[in-house]
Amino acid sequence: MDKFRIEGGFALKGEIAIGGSKNAALPLLAASLLADGETIIENIPGLNDILTFNNVMRVTGSRIDYDPESHRISIDPANLYYHEAPYDLVRKMRASFYMLGALLGRDGKARVSLPGGCAWGPRPVDLHLEGLRAFGAQIDLDQGYVVASAPENGLPGGTFSLKPSSVGATVNLLLAAARCAGSCTIRNAAKEPDVVQLCLFLEKMGAKIEGIGTSTLVIKGVDELKPVTFRNTSDRIEAGTYMILGAMHPDSDLTLTNVSTDELGQFPAWFHKTGAQSQSDAGRMRIISPAEIAPVSVITEIYPGFPTDLQAQWATLMTRAAGESHITDTIYPDRFSYVPELARLGADVYVKNNSAVIKGGRPLTGTSVMSTDLRASVSLVMAAMYARGTSDVLRVYHLDRGYEKLEEKLNQAGARITRVREN
Ligand code: UD1
Predict the structure, then answer these.
(1) What fold, for 2-19+234-421?
(2) Cα–Cα dist 110/98, whole Å
(3) Domain ranges (residues) in the chain
(4) 22-231 shares the fold of 2-19+234-421
(5) Radius of gyration (Cα) for the chain, nearest Å?
(6) Which of 114, 331, 354 to mutate to test the pocket of ligand 1 (most atoms within 8 A of CB)?
(7) Are the C-beta atoms of 374 and 398 separated by less than 8 Å?
(8) Protein residue with its CA nearest to atom 22 in ligand 1
(9) Helix-strand-coil percent breakdown of the chain, rounded to 5?
(10) How many other CB atoms are found less than 10 A from the CB of residue 32?
């Protein structure tokens, strides 16, 4: 397993380009299976999660050609004959569960492994299954697999309310509903940009969806969808991560390019409360770091609120703030595996209920740390970049799932990160 060796203390200067969004891309890949013929999607990031999903789609007999250099993918499911997503792949990445909605929506049948547990505690899929049942699917569980089928003429349709609102369930229900026989309504649907983009993609394919961007989506089924060419949006979580990085050192002067500034929700408002500033113009965002970071407590919420996918990075920023802050995760209350590792670097931080409590201002000192998930890993890399001395961040395979060329992008802006290959 590779690790990063990081020398701390260097300011970031120059430009970093934000890549295509991972979480927005995965639903598009799944949706492309709903139409026979070649779909082309641009701006697909070269990440291990994308490669995993490509393999999940290949299992079905679909043709997938992906070039991580040009970030272009071509998908043709004309020869799709096998309606299964096996455990070996689904356990590697939960979003493989999107195959359930895609295969059911396409051919009225699917056998998809249940994803199982997750490093952030329980992550149920009950809403995905109840929603599909409400739309008329037969759902059975068989030896760890979900076996789904639709009546011969397609899903009759129905209404389902998500409680709580869920990105993944909204995606699966949209995929299953696009070609249904009747009409499907999703109430309290997720409004995340990832879901909006999926709706626009499906619309371009010929789907009929009302309420895009609102919490009520009404899908009127169509007989057929056609393949399209589409450009994936840029990654708002990657952008937020680099915004935070740009604010952490008083001498940094970082400009981000390819930012979808209108998809950041309320995050910039929280960011500015720390004293950091950002100037945006046509997808470019210059970060002006504050001389002193103000402590800012945050509570994660669904979009456009503060994203749970940025709370670990925020915690790292807050270790440099002058005072106490609390980070509360209402979406994934157990998502604090990074806290003991931040403490190993010298931070004054502990978990109380579903909050991290941070007393900022203590200097961090380099050591070895490791973590169990993607965002926790990046938060430790960030902490190590500002710790005195050298740190090793172990298990960077988590980072390779979701941050494209992280060390390359950061080193080009002045960081000192070496990937140490270990077999
Ligand atoms: C997606 C993102 C993930 C992000 C999360 C919240 C992808 C691939 N992953 O995950 O990075 O952190 O949104 O923004 O896009 N829930 C249920 N039952 C269900 C489904 C969800 O109770 O059947 C709950 C969850 O436990 C959680 C909340 O709903 O408390 C939101 O989860 P959800 O939006 O579904 O997250 P994911 O789609 O898994």
Answers:
(1) UDP-n-acetylglucosamine1-carboxyvinyl-transferase; Chain (3.65.10)
(2) 11
(3) 2-19+234-421, 22-231
(4) yes
(5) 22
(6) 331
(7) yes
(8) 124
(9) 35, 25, 40
(10) 28
Q: How many residues does the chain have?
A: 423
**Which tokens belong to 356?**
């991290």
In this prediction the pTM is 0.97
Query: Which two three-digit tokens encode residue 222?
Result: 């169509």
Pair 179, 105: CB distance under 8 Å: yes
Residue 28 structure tokens? 């598009």
| Domain 22-231 class in CATH | alpha beta
Q: How far apart are CA 293 and CA 364, in angstroms?
A: 15
Contacts of 247 (CB under 8 A, 6+ apart): 271, 274, 276, 287, 289, 290, 293, 317
Of 240, 245, 388, 242, the C-alpha closest to 316 is: 245
Tell me the pLDDT tens digit for each residue of 28-87: 999 999 999 999 999 999 999 999 999 999 999 999 999 999 999 999 999 999 999 999
User: Atom of ligand 1 at shortest distance to CA of 332?
Assistant: 30
What is the whole-number distance in angstroms between the Cα of residue 134 and the centre of ligand 1? 20
